[in-house]
């Protein structure tokens, strides 16, 4: 595009020159061209100098002119380098002072290159046109130079997850156009800078919507001057630092706030009483500090989805605060060890979106009553170690209820399932596979549409989702749908996405391994990958509202399958992709491992699966199967020739798929989960029920299942390969029976 413009421009110049001088020939034209381009050699030389010692640069980076010869990841305007986007390609090297010569540079995205090291050169401040500086998930170190304050056009500054040390430069307060400020997950120390008449500070950032400072070692008090009524902040994240003192009441002045996290600091004193002025707030997370006195009245916070006040030093509440029953939007209430006393009203459980309530280690007493109108979204009620004396819950309840160490459980309730010391469910199942995966060559992955490809992979990290992990499935389904619709609309060659098991890490962040599959080809080319990476790193893609601020930590993507690659490169690329796939699998496995281990053990010990479904408190109902039948392990063993390799028709992270023949001659495909991919019996039951209910021309019909001898297998109608690929498109089902979005199948 730019090249074309340059060529046209030169052509016009040539024509013009020809018109003016009758004796002009082609040679003059060429000379003129060289002359016109001369100043740009400086800029080009700068890019060459900057990247001279870098490793793993794109193959296309040859020739003298980055603009003329179409270097991938570089765009130009008037032969000057305007953008450099080289995310997640395993670049190695350092940023040198040569950077400053790229004086027209507007966008620099080098995110997710863990091989980029060294400190930021202080003359970075000379990039006066820079709007976007994205250097997250690299390995930069040293302090953040004060000169970043000179980047007056800067809109987006993201240094998340490097090894920066030293203070937050006060000069950042000079960035009057800044919209996104993310310095989290570094080793920054010192206090939060605010202006004082002579020196600038963060309070001057009146256009900034995002303050992301979590996971550093910031200390000292939160200056009251940090928050002003003319600010437009929506996300204020100071979690996982070392802040002391109290939360200033000025926080209540920033009415635009949607997410507030000050958890995991050493904050103390009473909470400001005007927090409820934050009527747009969705997430208020103040847990794991040392706040005292009473929890303030939060009446009016009608948009509050997630409230976490756990592990503080509040005074005994002397009854349940009345405002507790007024926050209609709550999905997640975490009030562990908050000195709550009194009887929880049944009304509290009737908030329509309520999913998770954790109020362990309090003094809730009297009768625990759910009434008839409790939220159908309920997933977990953890009231471990309270003073509850009686319980009224209808027989068909479907959520996990934990009441161990309550007087009720020491007495008459002792043998009830919810009185046993259950583990909190650890991660959420997302099972985005509907089709029988095809066998893929060792380094490819079967996409949700069962095409083998090299996906762009990484972890989607949510720092303040408004939903809870356990109620997450429907939200994850929404995210998948949103990604699959939005990315192609942004002209990206994306076919489908796979979101595997989400889990919460110990910083309170929700982690979701994500794989994005290419359309058209089985891999992304470099340009496609850079564009995709930038759409995620620049936050051009906005997820549905409940996801809050996200960050995408990408794995290196090196499979470009270009024809230019020598066989040697091919080998290296293959190995690299193998590694990143292995990493993806390990990530998923880590999310699963703990929980699955327990489940496998459980599954192995059970004779009758339905009994175990009973003891899980699912309600004791056997799966409502529509036309699907139960197979014993032996039956399937026989019909697959003892699961012989010859009968294997595909495999994936979950296990293998076998072809088999039933006694009546029907050909079937058996999906056999391997250890480590077994689901809980409740999930397995849900899956079977769903699959047996769904009949659609684009879906493979479920013939039956086997849940026997610790095995979980799904038996499908067999469809010959070609048809299989073609028919099995789409994997979200909007059920006619009002189930909403549901995952079907069992992947990773
Ligand atoms: C403002 O802060 C700067 C840097 O922290 C300090 O050097 C200066 O003395 C302060 N000025 C006033 C008036 O407090
Ligand atoms: C946090 O502050 C305390 C004292 O206030 C100090 O002992 C501790 O080392 C600090 N932790 C970190 C990680 O800086
Ligand atoms: C909180 O809001 C109320 C009513 O909207 C207002 O009267 C009060 O001044 C506000 N408080 C603060 C500290 O902004
Ligand atoms: C409360 O503290 C305990 C013990 O430190 C910890 O295990 C638990 O996860 C904390 N709860 C929350 C909700 O942060
Ligand atoms: C429950 O706790 C409240 C508040 O501490 C107290 O007033 C009430 O008497 C207790 N109820 C029972 C049944 O113990
Ligand atoms: C049980 O809860 C009380 C607060 O009601 C707390 O003091 C105690 O430490 C908790 N017990 C355990 C074992 O966590
Ligand atoms: C790279 O992929 C993009 C997007 O699919 C496509 O438009 C472009 O033509 C491809 N480039 C090459 C060199 O194949
Ligand atoms: C970067 O993202 C912002 C929104 O976060 C968007 O307005 C802007 O256009 C994006 N930049 C580019 C170059 O796409
Ligand atoms: C990244 O590059 C280094 C060498 O620069 C190489 O050893 C490593 O295997 C590469 N990793 C990937 C995932 O390509």
Task: Describe the protein's topology.
Elements: H1 2-20, H2 26-37, H3 40-50, E1 74-77, E2 80-85, E3 92-94, E4 107-109, E5 115-117, E6 132-134, E7 141-143, E8 156-158, E9 163-166, E10 180-182, E11 187-188, E12 210-212, E13 219-221, E14 235-237, E15 242-244, E16 259-261, E17 268-270, E18 283-285, E19 290-292, E20 306-308, E21 332-334, E22 341-342, E23 356-358, E24 363-369, E25 380-382, E26 387-392, E27 400-402, H4 407-410, E28 427-428, E29 445-446, E30 452-453, E31 456-462, H5 473-489, E32 494-499, E33 502-504, E34 510-518, H6 526-537, E35 550-554, H7 567-605, H8 609-615, E36 629-630, H9 633-639, E37 648-652, E38 655-661, E39 667-673, H10 681-693, E40 702-708, E41 711-717, H11 721-727, E42 733-734, E43 741-742
Parallel strand pairs: 2-4, 3-5, 4-6, 6-8, 7-9, 8-10, 9-11, 10-12, 12-14, 13-15, 14-16, 16-18, 17-19, 18-20, 20-21, 21-23, 22-24, 23-25, 24-26, 25-27, 36-40
Antiparallel strand pairs: 1-2, 28-33, 29-30, 31-34, 31-35, 32-34, 33-34, 37-38, 38-39, 39-41, 40-41, 42-43
Helix pairs in contact: 1-2
Describe the structure.
With 748 residues, the protein is an alpha/beta fold. Among the domains are: 25-190, Ribonuclease Inhibitor (Leucine-rich repeat, LRR (right-handed beta-alpha superhelix)); 445-554, Alpha-Beta Plaits (2-Layer Sandwich), CATH 3.30.70; 629-717, 2-Layer Sandwich (Phosphorylase Kinase, domain 1), CATH 3.30.200.20. Strands 1-2-4-6-8-10-12-14-16-18-20-21-23-25-27 form a 15-stranded mixed sheet. α1 (2-20) crosses α2. The protein is flat and about 75 Å long. The two termini are 42 Å apart. Mean pLDDT is 80; it is low at 1-40, 562-622, 721-729 and 731-748. The structure holds 2-acetamido-2-deoxy-beta-D-glucopyranose (9 copies). The site of one 2-acetamido-2-deoxy-beta-D-glucopyranose has 5 residues, from loops.
